[in-house]
Amino acid sequence: xxxxxxLRVVVTGATGNVGTAVxxxxxxxxxxxxxxxxxRRVPDWSPPKTRWTAVDLxxxxxxxxxxxxxxxxVVHLAWAFQPTHDPATTWRTNxxxxxxxxxxxxxxxxxxxxxASSVGAYSPGPKDHTVDESWxxxxxxxxxxxxxxxxxxxxxxxxxxxxxxxxVVRMRPAFLFQRSSASEQRRIFGGRHLPGPLARPDLLPxxxxxxxxxxxxxxTDDAADAYRLALLSxxxxxxxxxxxxxxxxxxxxxxxxxxxxxRLPRTAARSAIAAAWGLHLLPASPHLFDAVLRLxxxxxxxxxxxxxxxxxxxxxxxxxxxxxxxxxxxxxPTEPLRGRKxx
Length: 343
Description:
This protein is 38% helix and 18% strand. By secondary structure, the protein is of the alpha/beta class. The strands form four sheets. Strands 3-2-1-4-5-7-11 form a seven-stranded parallel β-sheet, with helices on both faces. It has a three-stranded mixed β-sheet with strand order 8-10-12.
């Protein structure tokens, strides 16, 4: 797969939360000779061995063929979370844009495609035990994020059937956080005007304890390391779950923050979110909330066994780093990750 001088890797969505971590990991990898980062807006960030190309995947004229020519691998990370009130717009970028990437990979004869799927692609599942990669990937149909991730799983099924020579890897990570993504994720899920300093535990009168709200987290750098390992492993194919222990729920959060928990029924929590979303006060939709309550917990044994992957940080460490980033308005020198305090 590699040339005499090393691998040439193209990364879509290279300036976002996952993209910046993957670019850092690849730039530090001796077997990678060069990284081409694709993004809508070229950043003022110059990591080693990396050059940038402005590409908008929502455009039918996106110059993907030129970008992919001669590549040893494409890491497809590009994704738009907003606008949640206009799912047709995210569909154009996330689904149709991804289909353009898959078609361009095939046309250019790229031998490896690493695709960012998600825990959100999974059908509703258990919260009291874990499931492996064979769990159905039909998503939660009412949430655009899950619907789009699940649709692309089916698109990749067809791609693999039609292009068996291409090695396809589907990463299904848990929710990904790092310090430098704090401002971006606050804007995406909490809104531009949610004050970051509210992440201080002493300002929380109580912690809502919603039945079923139990999720897995992962540091973005640990996810990036899994991408690196999958790239370098010629045998790695198919799906890999990625998550850190322990699962996070209100009990764990309450212990971490020293905050009193108050039981809140699902219907009450959803009604509050739906009202704020309907008034455009909250970007995160009640449909995504419904999905989170139903996401299964993932078993990551395959990634450990076949990739030799293990997360370097526990979920509690990830959360502590992220909350500190929120309080400080942390960011990075790319447009999606720009840091900013609010309030």
